Amino acid sequence: xxxxxxxxxxxxxxxxxxxxxxxxxxxxxxxxxxxxxxxxxxxxxxxxxxxxxxxxxxxxxxxxxxxxxxxxxxxxxxxxxxxxxxxxxxxxxxxxxxxxxxxxxxxxxxxxxxxxxxxxxxxxxxxxxxxxxxxxxxxxxxxxxxxxxxxxxxxxxxxxxxxxxxxxxxxxxxxxxxxxxxxxxxxxxxxxxxxxxxxxxxxxxxxxxxxxxxxxxxxxxxxxxxxxxxxxxxxxxxxxxxxxxxxxxxxxxxxxxxxxxxxxxxxxxxxxxxxxxxxxxxxxxxxxxxxxxxxxxxxxx
Length: 301
What we know:
This protein is an all-alpha fold.
């Protein structure tokens, strides 16, 4: 009997599919993108190494960890960084003015300007720290599920989190916007000053992310709410621990001038679409695999 080939998990499939999507997009608009050749190599490499990891991850625990956590994190970071090279060439007209107008129509003013009334250095520190937890929330959830041996829950969570990231990236391509800290700088009368840590964190994030057109939708909101949903389902004690930081994070997106209020609403919708569409796909794939193996119904998600 021949050895059974390793199978692609939904997270693996999504990583490969989105890398190939960006590969095709870059090839299609090759003449518009100054570094298209480098990006083609980058996206092809991401898809290739994801495929290689599927075959070699079972050899030792480090390769398994690489496939489960290290490579997904690297993929998210690398793809996000590459968007700075393709969003503007593909869609050169920033739409901040549309988002600003929507905020004004909804609130009769500008939310980031409104928050100036409540600014305090200590509050700015607290909210800037809360905003920064976004970079750790998915990893914390993944590590907790891995350590507890919740393998199926981990794979489901990995798939939904990757899906949420990549859907937000599609939003950046379709609706390029810099965000209020750049587009509304002339309307802000007060500097966003912290007490101890806000300014160093802001400088570090600016250095890490650069100037990206990544305001709409609010990926911070979408990812944070998706992680909160998953922790409620699979690690209720972690949910209780994350609830307040996530709520503060969402508030911080506007207070700290990273996002318009409409971006946050879109981020909430992003989380809903991620959970709904991801759940439908995951259940369909799971049922198909169970039918092919002729085994009793798998655990529902």
